Amino acid sequence: MRGPYRNVILLIVDGLRPDAVTSRHMPALTDLFHRGWRAQAAVTVRPSVTVAALTSLATGVSPARHGLCDTGLRSLGRIRGLRPLPSELRHLGVGTAVITAPLSGAARRMAGALLRLGGVDRLVPAPAAPGVLMDVALSHVDGNRSREFVVVYLDDADVAGHAWGWMSPAYLQAVATIDRALEKLRALAEDPAALVIVTADHGGGGVLPQDHDHRHPLNDAIPVGMLGGRVMPGLVSPEPVRLLDIPPTVLHSFGGTAPQEYEGRVIHEAFMSELVYV
Ligand SMILES: [Zn+2]
Question: What spacing in Å lies between the alpha carbon of 158 and ligand 1's midpoint?
Answer without folding.
Answer: 5
